[in-house]
Amino acid sequence: MSVRKIAVVGSLNLDLLTEAERFPLPGETITGQRFGRFMGGKGANQAVAAARLGAEVVLVGAVGDDDFGRQMQAALGAEGVDTRGLRVVAGQTSGLASITVAGAENQIIVVPGANHALTPADVEARADDIARADVVLVQLEIPIDCVWAAAEMARHYRKPLMLNPAPAHRLPEALLRATTLLTPNAHELVASLGLPAETPLAELCAAAPCAVALSRGVEGAYYRAAGSHDLQHQPAFAVTAVDSTGAGDTFNAALAVYWHLGPTQALRHACAAAALSVTRTGAQSGMPHAAELAAFLRSLPGTLSGSRI
Ligand code: RIB
């Protein structure tokens, strides 16, 4: 199997992560246990996760003209991600995420900075990368017109568009129709479709005009093909969770990398990769390499073969 090529259009953030025993209440000050700086941002996280799984990855995005931006570019380069699609925005700070982790749950505040200076022209300038890609992967931490630009280019070059609708936003019907696979969690699916929160999951999935891979954390994930009413379930793999930051990004990257194996295998690989990712602190720190994922899948009872890309 040839190396998979993934074009990621998305955000880069520096994650400032504090671990505490619990989240503070509004107006309350509490003492935390640990602090760390990590590379993050949904675009960068998904790019790194895909590269570790053996894909050839290009990231289209924007960083500030500051030390954080230079550190993020260097870190991505060290992971083997092609950073020629990153624009340095003069006079702008890099994206920053303030994250609190308590009991493996997280709360995140993102200050987009340079991510919001990304333009459709920046995306269009990487036409060659998109033309070469097997999958185009995009999230919602960049301006929506850049998401549209990625969707239009994916359509032009007949590439599958994987849209991870995070953070949650109501999405135009036309964008959902341009999407090959929507990859929300339950809250993001409700928001994307603009339906009431109490809508049953099966109905929510059936309401999307595209295929849906719904991640449900400890419940695993569900897949529904476009136009179908069948929901396929992949149970989660049991691990000791330390920090769930970046689990969704790992899930998305693995789905993109293993999409050619078909939805059942792609979902299985994505749930396994996400499970491994929560066993370490920091979004990118826990993301598995292809060999680790293959060994994990081989170790599961009843497994006949490991992963391949
Ligand atoms: O999905 C996790 C990411 O969300 C973090 O790395 C943070 O930067 C925010 O973008």
Number of helices: 11
Which class best fits the helix and strand makeup? Answer: alpha/beta
Multimeric state of these chains?
A: single chain
Q: What is the radius of gyration computed over CA atoms, rounded to a whole number of angstroms?
A: 18 Å
What share of residues are in beta strands? Answer: 15-25%
Q: What does the main sheet amount to?
A: 9 strands, mixed
Strands of the biggest beta sheet: in what spatial order? 5-4-1-8-9-10-11-12-13
Write the layout of secondary structure elements.
Blueprint: E1 5-9, E2 13-19, E3 34-40, H1 42-52, E4 56-64, H2 67-78, E5 86-89, E6 95-102, E7 105-111, H3 120-124, H4 127-132, E8 135-139, H5 144-156, E9 161-164, H6 173-178, E10 181-182, H7 186-193, H8 201-207, E11 211-215, E12 221-224, E13 232-234, H9 247-258, H10 263-277, H11 290-299
Parallel strand pairs: 1-4, 1-8, 2-6, 4-5, 8-9, 9-10, 10-11
Antiparallel strand pairs: 2-3, 6-7, 11-12, 12-13
Helix pairs in contact: 1-9, 7-8, 9-10
